[in-house]
Amino acid sequence: MPHISWRRGGDPGKALRELLEEKEVVVAPGVYCPAVALLAEKMGFKALYVSGAAITGLLAMPDIGLITLEEMAIHLRWISRVTRLPLIVDVDTGFGEAVNVMRTVRTMIEAGAAAVQIEDQLLPKKCGHLKGKQLIDAEEMAKKIVAATKARGDSGLVIIARTDARGVTGLDDAVERAKIYLEMGADVIFPEALRNKEEFEEFSRRVRAPLLANMTEFGVTPYMAVDEFRRMGYKIVIFPVTTFRASLKASQRTLETILREGTQESIIDELMSRQEFYELINYRGYEDLDSTVSKDVEAMRKL
């Protein structure tokens, strides 16, 4: 069928590792459904991010650890089925302790993940840019990382360790935790909720590893461009919830227009056309597939 995932015959983790070896920064926009993933791929992005906050938001729930492993896996399977791009997947706190993390990793590999991102918060977790977060001991997080490395087996799965220490115990603790997580086998470090350019630069100087920067909206991190993160030594930049927020805002404006005007005609230019959507999902490919099957049936009946 059209868009069947390439992962049946390839290793997405190894593909992501190859991207990390290149000079360019890996820019990974958040995708919360297969159609948006297809759109991002067609626009030229090389990797995608599946945000726990966005998927939780799609289910109309707050990002406090309510989403389950299977709910994340279901959405990941839907997305990985249509895109060839490596998928970085937010698995919150790993859905439990070390043994749970092993199951999480195996489930995510089966669902098509190129990388899993695990954070060092205590449940109930919170958005990294909110107050009131609590941390697990660095030793407990170390166990989760070791468990993840064991569970990935011979796959190329990239393990991203996120620390929320900056907003709880300070930048120095975030640095020290990052070093511990690297020693335990993390491939990439994600320092969440840094406050300014100077903190990003300092973290990069003190932690020698591939680093991930979160360029989210409405948080404590100021808006910075990808080139700025590149100059500071960051290898991955994610925009985790941007497309989800944009879609909600556009839907809100559309609903207001229909309610006010009784028609969508005034905003028709703001909508993706039927033809554009058909091209996005390769509608013609499905028609061709159906035609091929019909021809095969005719040929077999003539035998």
Give your account of this protein's structure.
There is one protein chain. With 303 residues, the chain is an alpha/beta fold. The chain has two domains: 6-240, TIM Barrel, CATH 3.20.20.60; 249-302, no CATH class. Helix content is 48%, strand content 11%. It contains twelve helices and eight strands. The strands form two sheets. A five-stranded parallel β-sheet has the order 2-3-4-5-6. Helix 5 crosses helix 6. The chain is globular and about 70 Å long. Residues 4-8 have low confidence and may be disordered.
Please state how the strands of the largest beta sheet are arranged side by side.
Answer: 2-3-4-5-6
Rg, nearest Å: 21 Å
Number of strands: 8
Indicate the proportion of strand residues.
Answer: 5-15%
Give the distance, in angstroms, between the N- and C-terminal Cα atoms.
Answer: 26 Å
Poorly predicted ranges (pLDDT <50, ≥5 residues)?
4-8
User: Helix and strand string, N-terminal first?
Assistant: HEHEHHEHEHEHEHEHEHHH
Can you give the helix content as a percent range?
40-55%
CATH superfamily of the largest domain: Phosphoenolpyruvate-binding domains
| Major sheet | 5 strands, parallel
Structural class: alpha/beta
Give the count of helical stretches.
12
- The best one-word shape is globular
